[in-house]
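Lecture 7 notes: from sequence to structure.

We start with a single chain of 313 residues. Read the sequence below before looking at the structure.
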Amino acid sequence: MKSQDGRLACGDNLAPALPAGNTGLDFMPGVKGLRDLMFSRACAWGLAAAVLCVPAVAPAQEMAAAGVRAFTLPTSPPGLSPDCRSKRVAGDLFRRPLRTLSSAVRANRPVRVLAIGSSSTVGVGASSPSATYVAKLETTLEGTFKGLDFDVLGRGISGEEAQAAADRMKKEVEQAKPDLVVWQVGTNDAIRHVSIDSFKDCLRNTLAWLKERRIDAVLIDPQYGEALTKDEHYEKVVAAIAEIAREARVLLVDRFEAMRELHRVHGDRFYLTSDNLHMNDTGHRCMAEQLARSIVGGLLMADAEAAQPVFYP
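Now the structure, written as tokens:
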């Protein structure tokens, strides 16, 4: 008999039955008959033991017939496009296991990601809805996890500060019921000189609230721009986000540093629009790639911790 996970139960009785009406060893005449019977029984039990101790692997056709969607787990995080690469890959220094996301993948069901933030999450600067980082993130994750559905919900409000996003977080989480929250935060707080202490308290409290509900979180810090960094407060906000990410042990996509390295090679116009603030199509695409890489890395870390890592041949 097979167990629910497709493995044969080692307690099953697969021994050959004796002829009906005679349970002794004298139904075969002579020594040769007894020897043959003992040999046949030994072979049968040996075969049974071999079958019982080898797990059955269901082919893709059987998985499909059973209504289970086969998908492929990547062996490593996806790479970046040549024009999005930098010496310091965003997120690589702040990797954290995404355990709730891993559980969702194990359940082999559509994965829900809530992206909350300000104008970058709205998609300001992108030439079309499909060019935003939110849309690009969904297609990149689905391209990485072949056969698995991702639903990335963009919930951005232009000009919003961290506290306003935190205030609506509860409602957004209740409605979306996400496995992962991506929080793009800090740009407007930096521009408006929000108190660093108040800003850190806001991040700290909101991340604790998500953790209590067993929802994974990823932080994205502000974009880099040469004009933006002329204000000392801007980089103080960036540093505060890194501090809280380390303290709360959450994954941080260091967009600021990645864009600063790209700026040294290409300048601001490579990834920013003419307002020197909002990302253009290249900026959105690079941000999506960096974010996807960090998310996949966090999922693989969580999967490696599990007793039985996800694997679909």
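The longest helix spans residues 281-305. Keep this in mind for problem set 3.
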